[in-house]
Amino acid sequence: MLGHGAKHLAATARIGVGAGTGVLKPQHEGELVVTSLSSALRASDAPTGRIILRHSLLVRLCHWVNAGCFFVLLMSGLQIFNADPALTWGQATNFDHPFFSLSARENDDGDPTAGVTTIFGRPFDTTGLLGASRGDDGQLEERGFPSWSTLPAYQDLAMGRRWHFFFAWILVLNGLVYFAYLIGRRHIRDLWPSAADIRAIPRAIVDHARLRFPEGDEALHYNVLQKLAYLSVVVAFPILILAGLTMSPAMDAAFPWLLSLFGGRQAARAAHFLLATYLVLFVIVHIAMVVLSGPINNMRSMITGRYRIGEARR
Amino acid sequence: MIGEGLARPAPLRLSRRRLLLGLGAGAAAAPLSGCDTGSPAALSVLDKAEAVTKAVQRALLAPRAALAPEYPPGAITPTFKPNGSIDPDDPSYVALRQSGFADWNLEVGGLVERPMKLTLAGLRTLPSRSQITRHDCVEGWSCIGQWKGVQLSALLAAAGLKPQARYIAFFCADTLEQTLDNTGRYYETIDLIDAFHPQTILAYEMNFAPLKVEHGAPLRLRVERQLGYKMAKYVMRIEAIDGFSGISRGRGGFWEDRGYEWYAGI
User: Bridge partners of B170?
Assistant: First the structure.
């Protein structure tokens, strides 16, 4: 129990020390500030909330650059996907049996009448959203993902590719900076769950379901669900990028092992799409959690770095 | 007890949240509108990525002249999707096709020491290379096929490149888009790195049979480390050139003229 608590404090100290923006200063009169282990100990008995520097400048910058890039890459990616809105495994495309496809049903005049999403051979009517959606003129048109979700809004593969590859480079460079920080400054230790964390997963799930979020010393470090979620993103992005590179014929010539890694170019295309889907789900949950657990405090901590620790539950 | 979020007056929180959401939406809309109007300044910035991609990929490839993956015969795709022009109706091409390409010639000219004209029968007597490779379309799909033909490097060596030659241009028989100024005629350009790559061939055979019309008969280009649109079909004339700004709309190929990257390695 004691060892467990000490770990928390160590994590706290790291958040402060690794911050890069310097020593923590009191934000307001009367507020306690974490500057050392001993003050953190005292702080745990504080009657009011404290402010800590939760995110270093570098983490905050990387977060927002990454968020912006992801937004552009997602929408331009959907534009690119729309050029061939189907997924198959293996090296080459199985045109007859994709495991996922978006298509339109047409009437005798060739006008689309319904949008159909087919998953493992089972068709679902997704008119208006997937397969067929309304264009500017209000008419239903054949389109994988709808206009509002793609970049650019109109069908233009060449333009989608230009946006995608430009922001892919920014994402990769930003990611390299973040990974250097993750390892060089041992930020990875803030994300890596301990054995005690793993044991606490069931309780953490129950607490989250009741919208009871950690307060006091518990909030000085990421809880286990946060650690696992953020770690999964840190792992997913490099795999997603590798899957994207595997679609490049030049990269396949330079590094044939990429094809072995994913089981072929089309498999890599499917993996790229599925990992992007996972990240979209992550972003939805992430934003929901930000809103539910104190949006202003959370947003402030990712913009200015300052995070208010609420009073611990008794 | 009471967390700080709960202690805060709700209306304030809502309004600030709205403000943040509003800011986010505004930031989100800015690049979208910029793209939909397609301003030249924005495009020229985005185009920088192509140069970076080309430089990096060439750096990764150049020391090894790495080959594109080749596949066993069992991997050949049952149906190879034809794309772009699949049945050119240009009168001169139709005439050649009707005679079984007996009157067809491949011209090799431009910045070469010895311009040449080769018949299909003549090409078939030259040393050939056969390869089973994956064809990746810019749209996203892939097909695997067998290709046999003459290495472009052998033809260029026979013709003798002049020192000024920097690119090889391929002029095709098919008009993919009807335009008033003839810029709808298919053409492509590649640089000498790809031109002299061992897998860069002019193929007259596909899947162990003569090349079909839908795949570019009688002769098509294979550039295996790039996307499908680089691999011109219905090739009629090859020219060594020192630049392509004066050809058609000046971006080095039919699809390049319509916004696609000249370097199609990804």
Answer: B188, B238
